[in-house]
Design brief:
Blueprint lengths: L15 H12 L5 H13 L1 H21 L6 H21 L2
Helix pairs in contact: 1-2, 1-3, 2-3
Length: 96
């Protein structure tokens, strides 16, 4: 996955805007090891980015706790599947 941290020169300084754009790639562990190292090094040395990263990490954790693992009840899944099948059949018959 590429982001704004990609560069021909791996030692090039990152600016805060590039780090903020890619902070979710780091949080979701969706960047390669070099990009992770560069992003983390910048965050560790920049109090503004560290604060932003911390806020985003808390949001990710909160969403995971409050929304993670929830599944629709089996009855709802069955009703939705049936309704979709009926809609497809009706569309094929009427063309609408």
């Amino acid at each position: 996955m590429t982001g704004t941290y990609s560069s021909e020169d791996p030692d090039e300084e990152l600016d805060c805007s590039a780090v903020m754009v890619d902070v979710w790639l780091l949080l979701d562990n969706e960047c390669d090891s070099d990009a992770k190292r560069r992003l983390q090094a910048h965050i560790d040395s920049c109090s503004s980015c560290l604060e932003h990263y911390g806020i985003e990490a808390q949001i990710k954790s909160l969403v995971g706790r409050k929304c993670g693992g929830e599944q629709a009840p089996d009855g709802l899944k069955q009703r939705l599947a049936l309704k979709l099948q009926q809609t497809v059949v009706q569309y094929r018959i009427t063309g609408e």
